[in-house]
Amino acid sequence: MAAFSRAKHRWKRDNLFRVLTRNLTGKYDYDLVVIGGGSGGLACSKEAALVGQKVAVLDYVEPSVKGTKWGLGGTCVNVGCIPKKLMHQAALLGTAVKDAKKYGWQIPEPIFHDWATMAEAVQNHVRSLNWGHRVQLQDKKVKYLNMRGSLVDEHTVKGVTKAGKELFGFSTKSKKFLLSIALAASCMNGIGMCFGSSPCRIIVLNSSDVALECAGFLTGIGLDTTVMVRSIALRGFDQQMAVLVTDYMEAYGTKFAWKCIPKKVEKLTSGALQVTWMEINTSKEYQDTYDCILWAVGRAPETKLLGLDKLGVQINKETGKIIVRPDESTSVPNIYAFGDIAEGRPELTPTAIKAGKLLAHRLAGRSSELMNYHSVATTVFTPLEYGCVGLSEEEAEKRHGKDGIEVYHAFYKPLEFTVAERDAGQCYLKVGSSCYQKILGLHFTGPNAGELMQGFALSLKCGATYSHLLQTVGIHPTCAEEVIKVNITKRSGLDATVTGC
Q1: Which of 83, 299, 364, 418 is most buried, by the most CB atoms less than 10 A from its CB?
Q2: Is residue 476 annotated as a catalytic residue, yes or no?
Q3: pLDDT digits (tens, 9 = 90+) for 265-293
Q4: Spatial separation of the C-alpha atoms in residues 56 and 179, rounded to whole Å
């Protein structure tokens, strides 16, 4: 029986090898092989198939040290944007329940949040997306291979998949390759996947957008949350807006340890984690215990596993990312890269998706259009959301000079904050324009910032000017209406607080 089982196993392995390889014919097995099943890789593969290309996708996620795994869809679907936004929504609902009492809703006490219910619901949705991506690939005739891919030469990829303790290998040839693998997470962005039950005290190390988003929704569902900040919050974003975001978070209940760096972490016999940190300015050390540490210190490229060094693919030695040209090509013909793994590209899902679709059409000879990475809008889903498009005020000054820009701004109060008696001190917007009135950047903190910013992102792509804003009729009463009414300049020194309608 054992011999029969081994023979059957060998047959499956060899059959897999024969089915997936046709190297002896000297022809390419595929027009395009995509390594990486994240948002960009999936978008490119499906679009390439739609325009007549024969496509395969290799995707494999190495389990974490705790055995955490996830399915097809990449960082965004599994441990990034999707679970993050859902847990942000959970926190917003908690705030809405508090507001509801002021609006007349009779809500019995006590009100509490059940972590397990939220985590299960979020993970169920993520699993549905994993399955949906597999179905879409199948429907579009894209071959999906749950394998770790690496390049043998400029036309050959080998893949390894782990099934129990057995390894099955294969190699296949492709006319072109696309490298669209995600970065290896240095922290678990998908917090709902980490805990079986809700932790009580959490410390978040770092103050990037992901760090603040996680800290915000953890605070929002009632957890004792601290953020440790080494230097500044939201590096790379407009710093006036960053201060407004963190000020609101502090009022919201998130604690901040400013200008501090971690020195040591010890696990106590109780299971708690004792963190020792140092205040940079004074060199004084402090200690406290937490149930969980969230290392939100960024992600590292997984380029070393791809075999790129043997092929001469140029990589930035400092960042580990692949150096690409405007058309996403690398230093090796027929090998392309975009998304998080490409040097100088925004680490954003929508840019990867758009770039992937455009690349698919170029590779098929259907178009020559390049991806435009300028004026890409984004939103930080902190308790008070921050949306922006275009240049920060600092970058606008750097490029055009302080006298070469005009900044219009306003402090406003969302109508929904009034009856609820919520503080709107950090609800703010500003529009930066050049001396020719062309809008250089637009920044907004307030409710539904992402929904608001999407429309203004279109206007910037169309070359909107400050005059265009003034000519636009607002939708009353909305927060977005305040953007098209903005008329006080920073230079004037006048009070920018909006009064009345």
Answers
A1: 83
A2: yes
A3: 999 999 999 999 999 999 999 999 999 99
A4: 12
